[in-house]
Write a structure and sequence with these properties.
alpha+beta; D-amino Acid Aminotransferase, Chain A, domain 1; D-amino Acid Aminotransferase, Chain A, domain 2; 3 domains; six-stranded antiparallel sheet; 25% helix; globular; binds pyridoxal-5'-phosphate; catalytic activity; BCAT-like_C; BCAT-like_N
Length: 340
């Protein structure tokens, strides 16, 4: 266990609330007084800086500076009614010029489907949001069909079981909800993403205060065709997840995000993880496979990584290629960076 000797004072005496906002927040974000609504095209939506430097607005310090009282006399940030907040969410969405379009969302917390992106939100007290207690999966939408929905749904339920999340409905009802969400979206080409969460309830660690688990699903219009000319990859310096977590599709993707960013920083598309023994494992959101000069298909086995539906499909199709003599064989096992 890490030593706590670096703490200058006992933990009970150490303030976790910044006593001076200007010491703890980037100057450009909050270090000004008179914050007002900013509607259009800003990354720091809702906050506009208007001049005078902030000198501890709304806080009063006691003499030894370990506690901060909040004074409610300085309402610089608007306090909004529900309809005002929704209006602002609408404005935010209308001005957001992202590459992706969100066509429909289902939420078991409001028990329906919406096609209005402003309403595609999940509650802040959902344990998936503040504790990462959630799992997810996807399915491609091709020409109005869901590709391998059942294979993805099986993995989704396996992940939920590993994460100890009870299902809000049975499998058939969830399947039906997913299909109806895609139908309401009118999407012909894109992707369906869906999440099972321990659910809303409180801000504790344990999900015991969550009354129901929650199902969310969203349909995203595809606008970026995959570049089939090939991609550059590097090996990842971010530690690979332990097998227990890598084999389930939980929402804890920070290592995957950092790995992807590491690749992009060096001009690559993805960074590939090696496992603890130095064998090739997987990418941050894809499996990997190789065809050798001897026309053998090599694929890492799935005991420490996610069992990808695409990889499983490749293995099935490869069997046909072996029968046709186009591949010499298929090997699922340890794959070294140097080759075999
Ligand atoms: C870590 C990881 N490995 C592999 C995959 C590939 O899985 P699939 O082929 O089922 O999309 C994904 C997909 O997102 C992933 O996140």
């Amino acid at each position: 266990m890490a030593s706590l000797s670096f703490l200058p004072k006992p933990i009970s005496e150490t303030s976790h609330i910044p006593t001076k906002l200007v010491d703890h927040l980037p100057f450009s974000h909050v270090a000004y007084r008179n914050l007002s609504f900013l509607g259009v095209g800003s990354r720091s939506f809702g906050v506009k800086t208007t001049g005078r430097p902030l000198k501890e607005i709304g806080v009063v310090k006691n003499s030894n500076q370990t506690e901060t009282l909040v004074d409610s006399q300085t309402p610089d940030v608007p306090v909004l009614s529900c309809s005002e907040a929704i209006e602002r969410l609408k404005t935010y969405r209308e001005n957001q010029k992202g590459k992706q379009q969100f066509l429909a969302m289902y939420s078991s917390t409001f028990g329906g489907i919406t096609t209005d992106p402003a309403a595609m939100v999940i509650p802040m007290d959902d344990h998936m949001v503040h504790r990462g207690h959630g799992v997810f999966d996807t399915a491609a939408i091709m020409d109005g069909y869901l590709y391998e929905l059942d294979q993805h749904l099986d993995r989704f339920l396996r992940s939920a079981s590993m994460a100890k999340i009870n299902l809000p409905f049975d499998r058939e009802s969830m399947r039906s909800v997913l299909i109806q969400t895609v139908s309401a979206s009118k999407c012909r080409k894109g992707s369906l993403r869906y999440w099972l969460s321990a659910g809303p309830g409180d801000f504790q660690l344990s999900p015991s205060g969550c009354q129901h688990s929650a199902l969310y699903a969203i349909v995203i219009q595809d606008q970026s065709p995959f570049d089939a000319t090939g991609v550059k990859v590097v090996t990842s310096s971010i530690p690979i997840k332990p097998a227990q977590f890598a084999t389930m599709k939980s929402v804890n993707y920070l290592p995957n995000v950092l790995s992807k960013m590491e690749a992009e920083e060096s001009g690559g598309y993805a960074a590939i993880w090696l496992d603890g023994d130095g064998f090739i494992a997987e990418g941050p959101n894809m499996n990997v496979a190789f065809v050798t000069k001897e026309r053998e298909l090599l694929m890492p086995h799935f005991d420490k990584i996610l069992s990808g539906c695409t990889a499983q499909r490749v293995l099935t199709l490869a069997e046909g290629l072996v029968r046709e003599g186009k591949l010499q064989g298929i090997k699922v096992g340890n794959v070294r960076v140097e080759g075999r």
